[in-house]
Amino acid sequence: MDSSIRIPQAHAAIHQPKKATIEHAIQPYVYASVFSSLCIIVGLIWDISWHTSIGRDGLLAPPHDVIYLGAILAGLFSSYQVLRTTFWGSAFEKQSSVKFWGVFYGPLGAMFCIWGAIAMLTSAPFDDWWHNTYGLDVVILSPPHTLLALGIMMIQFGAMVAVLSSLHATKSGGTVVHKMLFAIAAGLLLTSLYTLFSEYLNKARSHSALCYQVGAILFPLFLIAVARASKMRWAATLTAAVYMAVLLIMLWGLQLFHATPRLGPVLNHFDHYQPFHFPLLLIVPALAIDIVFFRLENKKPFIKVMLAALSFLLVFFIAQWYFGAFLQTSPLARNWFFGSYAWYFGANPDWPYRYAFHPQRIDTGSSLVIGMLIAGVLAILSGLLGYVWGGWMKRVQR
């Protein structure tokens, strides 16, 4: 009797570690999608500094190569995952995947990455043709750039979904690697959102209500979604920390390299890269979201989201209003650390508002109060939408 009892126990003990190993395994395409997202962000910020510092580029300029490398890696690894699951996957793997076009099986995150890679690589020759036909862009979101931006967002969102589906497949709430990959993927997507709307969120607009209205639309939506979807207590804070770290590393690193303008007229002379913006202090209001979610964990969702969104906006306004003034006006910010000296080579370096707020970008009195009330409403609506979006991501299993 004893031996008959011990044999199943031994058998279970032998197989249990293997089950845990399979359960916590992270597929290569997940790592590849997060790395691809990083390549895209590095290339994107480098490209902005390239245009500010050098001006002239081509289809295969170094920043473009890094961006397209990210698209290629995401597309290849995700395609391999889909093809492997479709033609060589087990019945269980197919049941755990999304069926696409009635033929293909694969993770939802991989599908997003494939679509994003196709959009990004299609935008490359389209953009080259656009420049040859119409000249240099006068707006950020030209048709080829819009297609590129959509592709970037798809790949970066696909990376988030890929990590989440892998995390949700575990029974123990995910490993540390799962959680760190999710924070990195979310932080990289947050960096893209900021970069896309940086025209309205830079230091020169930090005393304008429009800056906080745009922030109220973007950031509660995304950070509250992340806070709900993740199993991490400080998800919003870690996401904002990744965003700040990426922008700071790029700001400090690019200044070390030689660059001279190649496109006239050159009004502002320099011999090194002009860096991108110092990041917004999003880590402070993101912390407010995490605290509200932690302290009001058992409260009704509407109350919790409303307080989180308004807390974010209040802290964001206080932190960025004063820090933005420092970056815009203080001589102490015109150094390698803060990078506020950066200036486009074709802009007049003696422009009177280079280190001062333009009167048309300042809101005071009733205009500021009304503008911030509008921002408060936008923040609540954005937060509610983010909560719903986060609920969907929380249920992603494939």
Features:
398 residues; mainly alpha; two-stranded antiparallel ribbon; 2 strands; disordered N terminus
Would you mind describing this structure in some detail?
Mean pLDDT is 88; it is low at 1-23. The chain folds into 2 domains: 27-196; 202-233 and 251-398, no CATH class. The chain has a two-stranded antiparallel ribbon with strand order 1-2. 42% of the residues are buried. It contains 13 helices and 2 strands, in the order ααααββααααααααα. It has helices spanning 2-24, 28-53, 62-88, 91-95, 108-134, 143-168, 176-196, 198-201, 209-229, 235-254, 283-295, 301-329, 365-394; strands at 98-100, 104-106.
Summarize the model shown.
This protein is mainly alpha-helical and 398 residues long.
**Oligomeric state of the chains in view:** single chain
Summing up helix and strand content along with how strands pair, one would put the structural category as mainly alpha
Number of strands: 2
- % residues in beta strands: under 5%
Order of helices and strands: HHHHEEHHHHHHHHH
From the alpha carbons, calculate the radius of gyration and give it in angstroms. 24 Å
> How many domains in all?
2
Number of helices: 13
Low-confidence stretches: 1-23
C-alpha geometry? globular
Mean pLDDT: 88
Approximate helicity band: 55-70%
The profile of the biggest β sheet is: 2 strands, antiparallel
Order of strands in the sheet with the most strands? 1-2
- How far the N terminus sits from the C terminus, by CA atoms, comes to 44 Å
